[in-house]
Amino acid sequence: MASFMQKRDHRTAWRFLAPSLLLYGAYVVFPIFFSIYLSVTQWDGLTPAVLPLCYNSEESCFQNFIDLWNDEVFWTSLRNNFYWLIFFSLSAPVGLALALLFHVKSRFASLYKSMFFMPMVFSLVVVGTIWSWFLQPNFGLVEYLLTTLGLLKDGEHFTMMSSDRWATAGLIVAASWPHAAYCMVLYLAGLSNLQKNVIEAAEIEGVTRWQMLWHIVLPMLRPATVIVVIVTMIGALRSFDLVSIMTAGGPANSSNVLALYMYQQTFENFRYGYGAAISVVLFAISLLLILLYLRQTLKDEEARS
Amino acid sequence: MEPKKRGIMFWILGTLLLLLWISPILASLLTSIKTLEELNEGHYWTLPRTFSVQNYIEAFTVGKFSKYFWNSLVITIPTVLAVLFFSSLNGYVLAKLRFSWNNKLMLLFLAGMLLPFQILLIPVFYLSSQFLHTYDTRFGVVLFHTAFQLGFASFFMRNFVRTIPDGIIEAARIDGCSEWRIYSRMVIPLMKPALAALATLLFTWIWNDYLWSLILIQSDDLKPITSGLQNLKGQWIASYHLQSAGAVIAAVPPVLMFAFLQKHFIRGLTMGAGK
Q: Quick check: A218 contacting B, CB < 8 Å?
């Protein structure tokens, strides 16, 4: 009987899953392998059949990767992605600070919280448009305020976004704005799940606020922090929209990132093989994070069951 | 300090912080309701002399935002519905059927949601232009979004369905209900809170997408509002009043959704992340 039930369940399961797996296989699973294959070709996007670079030829199959190694823009983009990885993470402490500040129960507080959350539901195109105007070097609000406060002298302009040294910093600040709001949400949820008796016991013991935060609250927020860190790192590697909208990687590629560089090489220069090679590098970096995340999830599952 | 004074200090500090936080939004809102004449005189950051909706009208007509807005709806709503349907079905299978592939498929779905989009870009473009012939259609974008969002959504629904007690499902099986009937008549009604939370998240994500319509749609007439806003920036480069109005229009649907369904949205985010 049991095995009959199991067989029936199996058949139903496959039937229910079939449309999803077909879609998911075609649009998510197959593309990974296809991209990896394309990275050893020089496809132009037009010819139907495409062979590896080393097929019947002297060329190395890894010519795209060799070219990448010698490509200055690739290294600049990789370095910028690294900056993103580090400085984008600062949204986590900002989100935590906001969460700690507004973790009070009152009608006012919840109104304030909603306002803080708002950037989170904006499209990055909206964020980029708003911030481009905010940081605009002649008429923008930041320029106006700095001039009013006397921090910019006559004739000086707030040129952050057109500077090859500071444009990436400006991009990361703009990206952190909605992301810190997201971190705030996760930390607020974490804070409302804290074990009250531990907090009360600590209060009776008379610990200082700092000790409370560092030794009691933060360790209890660890699950939220794990998620925040992984999502932040993935976000840093995915950064595309804001860079494309606010600087288009400029000036002179100084604020480019791998995701945008891949897009430019592929769809603007029609170097599909080269673009695929960049995406494979990006994928390889992400794979590390994905595996870490899967391991963490499996651990949580085991802990629960 | 006495508690009352501290409370007042807290609200003053909090209000200043909030103003600083939303100052980029306030800047765009202010610019969007100013007339071009006033801006040309250089009065960017003074209080507006009149409240003008001219920029919004222009964005809708000259900027073709009415078309873009419609396209965004046509892409977003079917995607949300399709993902809700398939992911709830997957969630039920992965959580409640005795099925040896459960964990493997769950990991597959989970891994997909963290992929860098670039690894999918060329093959998806190729698939829709050469093979499925859905390139440059809104349907093609719906199809891709549905496939991609299934990863997160199935995982999300599975975790929710697991909290439904096995007993009631077993009882229905013993009564001879088919699995389809159990899913559609029993599980779906119980899933309502999870479906609502997931729907708000999906709506925001799909509405806000920029990259995929950039790749999969070429005709200006079919592009969603995010691309439309970017076009506006390209065509009227220094027209900050128009761009600001456009940004506000593009942000309104998710903000309204958030204003009215905040609880579901927040629950979705924390359920999805905190498992």
A: no
- Nearest residue of A to residue B231 by CA position? A245
Q: Among A29, A116, A177, whose Cβ lies nearest the Cβ of B18?
A: A116
From first to last of its 275 residues, chain B has per-residue pLDDT tens of 566 777 888 889 889 999 999 999 999 999 998 888 888 777 788 888 888 888 899 889 888 899 999 999 999 999 999 999 999 999 999 988 878 888 888 889 988 888 999 999 999 999 998 888 899 999 999 999 999 999 999 999 998 999 888 888 888 888 888 889 998 988 999 999 999 999 999 999 999 999 999 999 999 999 999 999 998 887 776 788 899 999 999 999 999 999 999 999 998 888 765 43
Nearest to A12 among B179, B208, B229 (CB): B179
For chain B, which domains are there?
A: 3-57 (no CATH), 62-274 (1.10.3720.10)
Which residue in B has a C-alpha nearest to residue A123's C-alpha? Answer: B208
Report the C-alpha gap between B206 and B72 in whole angstroms: 9
Domains of chain A: 74-196+225-283 (1.10.3720.10)
CB A143 within 8 A of CB A169: no
Q: Which is it for the CA torsion B250, B252, B253, B259, positive or negative?
A: positive
How is B35-91 classified by DSSP, letter by letter? -HHHHHTT-SSSPPSS---HHHHHHHHTT-HHHHHHHHHHHHHHHHHHHHHHHHHHH
User: Residue A133, exposed/middle/buried by CB under 10 A (0-12, 13-18, 19+)?
Assistant: buried
Instruction: State whether ipTM is beyond 0.90.
Output: yes
Nearest residue on chain A to B259, alpha-carbon basis: A114
A179 φ, ψ (degrees, to nearest 5) = -70, -35
- What are residue A41's phi and psi, to 5 degrees? -125, 175
Please tell me the distance from the alpha carbon of residue A90 to that of residue A176, in angstroms, as a whole number.
8
